[in-house]
Amino acid sequence: MPKKLNIDSLSSEITTVKDLLSSAQQSGDIVGEMQLEHRLKELSRKVESLKSDTIADNSASVALFFGGQPVLGSKGIAVEFAGLALEQFQNLIAKVFASSEIGALGERGKVPFKANSELMVTGLARGSFGFVLDEMSDQMQLESSQLSQIIDKASFLLRDTAAQDEAVFEALLEELEPRTLIALKDFFSNLDSSKATIRVVEKDLDFILDGPAIHRAKIRTEATSIEENTSDIEGILVGFLPEHRKFELQDKNGQLYYGSATKEAVDQFVKATATVIGKHCLIRVIIKTVAPLNRPPREIIRLLEFLRFGE
């Protein structure tokens, strides 16, 4: 369970115990007062322990709270909606995980590394009806696990796709892979058609997407298209910034290509035995055409690898 959720739950219980303690003091219930004071100290100790624990398990953990039409307070949730929403969230995690590992995914077929991204429902969250999803690991993670970092990315994707500022959504499109966009569209379409809301709690992140935010995200993802094409380009390497993973290349017709570079391309550049800036080279890039809502299409270029240096 996310640490923040544990702390919030204990803090809520502390508030309740304080109210009961005040009532016991006013009524002269000495035994009850002693029991409640002991309980209050125990709860406070647990909260302080959680806040100061730097060797906590850093395995992936996220809580999803649902509200709206499919939910009856904290009593229950529609089975069909819950099953589909959890499946779609897991699908989003799998797509983000795979794209972070290999970059562009194929248009169809199995999602690579899917088994590495699987979460399990380990509990129900208090409050509105929610589920706690955890990474299953036999060992304590002293540093944030890879899957934990992927859930970070996926959570920010959900939040920023529904942001009021259109520019926030457009900024994330530069790194978004087409099949991840489809996963986002499916998730928000289900929430919107079901008239549901969602709260996401993960590490220190805690946000709520209400009806208007979800509808906004649905419209954006449905109206946005991303197309990717791989191309080999030969030209002069004008500039390369390894620390920022940026490159600039000019082809024989004088056209400039500027964009980001993969970690593999950066490693190739760093390992080059002689300076290659100003020299001819052959590179392989992905040219991504992004057409957001009410905006003209734009191209985003990503350098995948150097095929040849200095010729």
Automatic annotation (TrEMBL):
This is Uncharacterized protein.
